[in-house]
Design a protein that fits this description.
By secondary structure, this protein is of the alpha+beta class. Helix content is 30%, strand content 15%. The protein has helices at residues 9-18, 37-44; strands spanning 19-20, 25-28, 31-33. It has a three-stranded antiparallel sheet. It is extended, with a radius of gyration of 15 Å. The chain starts with 8 loop residues before the first helix and ends in a 17-residue tail after the last helix. Residues 6-57 form the Aminotransferase-like plant mobile domain. One of its GO terms (biological process) is meristem maintenance. This is Aminotransferase-like plant mobile domain-containing protein.
């Protein structure tokens, strides 16, 4: 969960059905929609200005 947001299986399923792997976009009745890094930052509050993760991150607890 992100900041108290709960995952909603019906919504996830609806988005999954509209995802086009060949173009990496969602296809809606009104047209295509691309999610950008800036969208992730603005909508989810996730930082996008740190180091890029290029391999699995292992947590040592």
């Amino acid at each position: 969960m992100l900041r108290g947001t709960k995952l909603d299986p019906p919504i996830i399923s609806a988005f999954f059905k509209r995802w086009r792997l060949d173009t990496h976009t969602f296809h809606f009745p009104y047209g295509e929609c691309t999610i950008t890094i800036e969208d992730i930052n603005l909508q989810l509050g996730l930082p996008v200005d740190w180091d890029v993760v290029t391999r699995p991150v292992v947590s040592v607890d």
